Amino acid sequence: MRAALPSLLCLSLLAAGAVPEAVAANDTEAAPYLDIGGAVRFNYGWLDYGPTSGLQLELLRADLDAGAGPAFFSAQYRWYDGFDAVHHAYAGWNISEQTAVTAGVQQVPFGLLPAAAQSFWFGSGYYLGIEDDYDTGVMIRHEQGPHQWHAAWFMADEYGTGSRADRYSFDVAQTDALPYRERDRIHLRYERALEWAGGQLQLGASGFSGKVQNVDTRRHHGHHGAALHAQFKRDGWTTQLQWARYRYDVPGERIAMSAFLAPFEIAAEADVPTANLAYSFGRQRWLDDVTCYNNLSLTLPVQRGPAVRESWQNVSGCSLGKGPMLIYADWIAGKNMWFAGGNGIGIDTGMATGWHSRFNLNIGFYF
Questions:
Q1: For residue range 287-328, what is the model confidence (pLDDT) as tens digits?
Q2: Is residue 8 assigned to a domain?
Q3: What confidence tens digit (pLDDT) does each residue in 38-68 have?
Q4: Taking the model in full, what pTM does it have?
Q5: How far apart are CA 288 and CA 281, in angstroms?
Q6: Which CATH number characterizes residue 287's domain?
Q7: How far apart are CA 48 and CA 170, in angstroms?
Q8: Is 123 inside a domain boundary?
């Protein structure tokens, strides 16, 4: 992450209750409810490639969840240093105990859910717009025994324009050199849970197909992606494996992304392998839980050329929970990686960008 944005680059939301479920309740006879909550977080960051930021306020958050009978609603709004943004805002209907439909700004069903990471920093996929992404659309979710299906149509990103960089999730950006925005996109996701080797194994596949539009020429270009993903849990251990590929059929080898007021460029087509390992120690003295993890992800451009090259990110750390408090202590190492000393993701600017690292401490209180 760039030193110019020390307080905006502490982005992950894998805290308790931070990622809302697509279905508020699976009971069509549910009693009316109204839950109001929020969060406040503080952050400290040390960088080996720029100025260190002292402990400062990183986030204020307001949450609202409500429902009556089969209908439900969920919304979250956030205030960061220098901007504010919607996280999600959707309404839904429980068609049955197994099936629900939701409409609005909601999490895109792609890859491991809620995220292919355990760290506060997330994996490379988050910054590429294929992990913990929130867009405007309609989704149906169906569960039957060990099987889970998602089918969704997203008309655009959460704001319907690529010109806004003040947003939470990463979307295609409209820049002078690469003036694009996201348009219609269809998503399909399937996952099956089964008992294996004394633990729980989840195997799945995801895919999407859509387009982006050049706002200058009004021409549309293809936007596609696919992923195979697996998660295994046993005796406190969690292993996550994922392979994903995305492709923008735009002229040239790059496209721009943006969030947190920071536009940057990425490879237009790349493989994104992820390998994560985590262990929960459970209750430790006065702490409710201690979980330590290592999250490794790469961005490997498919079409090799002078404008692209691979990027690496590795996050090692621990999370500590006590009541409403959740603390993340992460060591982030990146090579040619945006938000870790690099100029973008999967791109080659002709400048030497070796390994850089930073330490990030985030202290959050969730209500």
A1: 999 999 999 999 999 988 889 999 999 999 999 999 999 999
A2: no
A3: 999 999 999 998 888 789 999 999 999 999 9
A4: 0.90
A5: 10
A6: 2.40.160.10
A7: 25
A8: yes
Tokens for 204?
A: 């799945």
Kindly list the distances between the CA atom of residue 211 and the CA atoms of 140, 180, 280, in Å, as whole numbers in the listed order. 21, 10, 40
Under a CB-based contact definition with an 8 Å cutoff, are residues 267 and 250 in contact?
no
pLDDT tens profile 249-300:
999 999 999 999 999 999 999 999 999 999 999 999 899 999 999 999 999 9
Domain membership flag for residue 6 = no
Cα(194)–Cα(210) distance, integer angstroms: 32
Structure tokens at 151: 């089918």
- CA neighbor of 329 nearest in space, from 317, 321, 314, 339: 317
**Cβ neighbours, 10 Å, residue 165:** 19
**Total domain count for the chain?**
1
Task: Dig out the tokens for 173 from the structure.
Answer: 């950006």
CA 162 from chain centre, in angstroms, equals 18
Say how far apart CA 45 and CA 356 lie, in whole Å: 14
Q: What are the distances in angstroms from CA 32 to CA 28, 102, 106?
A: 11, 18, 22
For residues 232 and 217, is the Cβ–Cβ distance under 8 A? no
**Strand order through the sheet with 171-172:** 171-172, 254-259, 262-267, 344-345
Q: Which one, of 280, 301, 286, lies nearest residue 234 by Cα?
A: 280
- List C-alpha distances in Å: 157 to 124, 236, 352: 19, 36, 33
Distance of CA 101 to the CA centre of its chain: 21
Distance CA 107, CA 363 (A): 24
Mention every residue, 6+ apart, whose C-beta is less than 8 A from residue 350: none
**What's the domain range around 342?**
33-366
